[in-house]
Amino acid sequence: MQPTSILGRYITKQFVLNFLAVLLMISGVIFLFDTIEQLRRSSSRPDIDFLFMIKMSSSKLPRTFEMVFPFVIMIAGMITFWKVSRSNEFVVIRSAGVSTWGFLLPVMTAVFVIGMINIMIINPISSYLYEVYETMDMRFKTRNPNAVLFSSKGLWIREASEDGNILVLEAKSVRQEEDILVLKDVSLLEFTDTSFLIKRIDAYAAELNGNKIDMKAVKIFENGEPMRKLDSYKYKTNLTIDRIKENFVEPEAISFWNLPDTIKFYEKSGFSVVRHKMRYLSLWASPFLLMAMVLIAAVFALKSNVRRGGVMYLIVGGIATGFVVYFMSQIIYAFGVNDYIPILIAVWTPILIIVMITTSILLHLEGN
């Protein structure tokens, strides 16, 4: 059955409507409980108003929802399959010569499209809003309305220059003022690729503006040269404010579109990129994971000869199976992040196992 046929469009419409209903319901529940938690946290803070806490809950919602997105797809699939089974529509469709796989094709197509929209459009928005939430949370904790993510942490970062040398930048304190990053008590070390120290630059203060570090009250130490004192010194760099921010946030808070450049930058600078590669490959694999969750829903809820009420027990079993599958995939993901198993195996093994098991069961049911 083609997804563009009349029957294919009907099934797709039923699934999309159920998906949107489940999406709104779960989003509302998550938002409600998170808002209650934020209000509880702010109960002893008269300087925090209600609007600030609502903004925190709203900015955190997309990131929280991303974690339960596979369950939303599975529940929407179960509701759709339960309805067509209860109304005997599935029996009629099968009698018309449409196989189980032909019935599932429109739903699987819709899920794949939803998955691609999620990683290419929703994920960048979610990443940006999660960064907003992290900033607001730091302002709440530090009671500083101008605090940014890295204001109280100082800075240690490494960069590989175009000539093959390694730059290490350290600052005791950091703050952002519009598009300029202000650093205090700065030390800049330049090494060869064999870790031989070439130059050290100390400065009382510095500003990162564009691709230049403007340093003030500078002392320069260089091999074979006497120490030099300068009022100001400009150092060219590839570092940017966005790049430094990414050094302080989780890979989950970096946009899908920015992850490839982040991975290249960290690889060139000698940092470990296992977590970032895992995140990037997981995003590419997520549409296929969603399709696998639909197969789980089909195994438990798509029946042509169940008694009245029997489908509900199967749905409960399907939801329980979905939770087990999700947590097992998270365990395998943790093995990949810690480099115990190859990244590709960690990303694709849970999906392949789900697909093989559910396909075998559906083929068995198809033959009965």
Structural summary, described in words:
With 368 residues, the protein is an alpha+beta fold. It has 2 domains: 233 residues, no CATH class; 89 residues, Lipopolysaccharide (LPS) transport protein A like domain (lipopolysaccharide transport protein A fold, Sandwich), CATH 2.60.450. It contains 9 helices and 6 strands, in the order H-H-H-H-E-E-E-E-E-E-H-H-H-H-H. A 6-stranded antiparallel beta sheet has the order 1-2-3-4-5-6. Helix 4 crosses helix 7. The longest helix is centred in the first third of the chain and has 43 residues. The protein is elongated and about 90 Å long.
Radius of gyration: 27 Å
Structure classification: alpha+beta
Query: Beta-strand percentage?
Result: 15-25%
* Helix content range: 55-70%
Q: What composes the largest sheet?
A: 6 strands, antiparallel
Set down the secondary structure blueprint.
Elements: H1 6-41, H2 50-86, H3 89-95, H4 100-142, E1 155-160, E2 166-177, E3 180-191, E4 197-209, E5 212-222, E6 228-236, H5 241-246, H6 259-269, H7 274-301, H8 310-337, H9 343-367
Antiparallel strand pairs: 1-2, 2-3, 3-4, 4-5, 5-6
Give a short overview.
The chain is α+β, with helices and mostly antiparallel strands and 368 residues long. Helices cover 60% and strands 17% of the residues.
Question: Which descriptors apply to this entry?
Answer:
alpha+beta; elongated; 368 residues; lipopolysaccharide transport protein A fold; six-stranded antiparallel beta sheet; 6 strands
